[in-house]
Amino acid sequence: MNSEILKLSSQEQAEMLNISPDFVRISMAAAIELGLKPGRIHGCGCGCINLLQNYPEGCFANCSYCGLARERPGLAEENSFIRVDWPLFPTDLIAEKIAETEAKSTVGRICIAQVQDHRANDDLLDMTRRIRKQAQEVPISALAMATLLDKNILIEIQKAGADIIGIGMDAATEEIFYNTRGK
C-alpha cells in the first residue's frame, strides 16, 4: 500500500473515495445556509450556492492565483479554493437541500465549478442533471474550464439544465495564458 495513503487520517482516506459526480464540495456559507453545517452568518442568504467538483488528485491546472493549483505544496485535500473550507457532501443530498430551501424562500442561483480533470465534462453534465431534477426553478450556472470545451460540450451542458455557462478567460494572449495558468 502507498505510504502516502497510510499517513492520511481516516476522514482524509474516505474523502479520496468521495469523488464527483457523486460528491461535491460546497462553500462553507452555502453549507450553513442549507443546514448542512452548524453556524449562523449575519445577513446571509442563498443568493448563490457555489459547488466545486472534487477529485483526489485535485486540479490538474496550474493557475498561479488559485489555491487548487497542481504545484501547490501539500496534499490536494489540504488546499483551499479561496481560503475557506469547502466541505464535501453527496451531490444528491445537496440537490435535496437546495430544493427544500427553494420551497421555503429563494435560492438566487447555483454555480457548479469545474476543475481541470479528464472526468470533469461528464461529471458536470451528471451533476447539473441531478440538481436540475430536484431544483427545477433555480437557475444553474456552469463554470466551465476553457481548456476542456468544444461546441458539442457547450450544447450538452445547456441540454443538461444549465441556464448560464461561464467560461474563464484568464488572459488576453496565449503567452499570458500559459504564464498564468501553466501548461
Molecular structure report:
GO terms for molecular function: catalytic activity; iron-sulfur cluster binding; metal ion binding. The structure is a single chain. The protein is an alpha/beta fold. The protein has one domain. The chain contains 7 helices and 6 strands, in the order H-H-E-H-E-E-H-E-H-E-H-E-H. It has a 6-stranded mixed sheet. Strand 5, helix 6 and strand 6 form a beta-alpha-beta unit. Helix 4 runs parallel beside helix 5 and helix 5 runs parallel beside helix 6. The longest helix has 15 residues. The model has no long low-confidence stretch (mean pLDDT 80).
As for the number of domains, it is: 1
Please tell me the overall pLDDT. 80
Strand order of the largest sheet: 3-1-2-4-5-6
What is the percent of helical residues?
A: 25-40%
The helix-and-strand class reads alpha/beta
Number of strands: 6
For the termini, the CA-CA separation is 31 Å
Low-confidence stretches: none
Order of helices and strands: HHEHEEHEHEHEH
Rounded radius of gyration (Å): 17 Å
Strand content: 5-15%
The largest β sheet comes out as: 6 strands, mixed
Based on Cα principal axes, name the global outline.
globular
> How many alpha or pi helices?
7
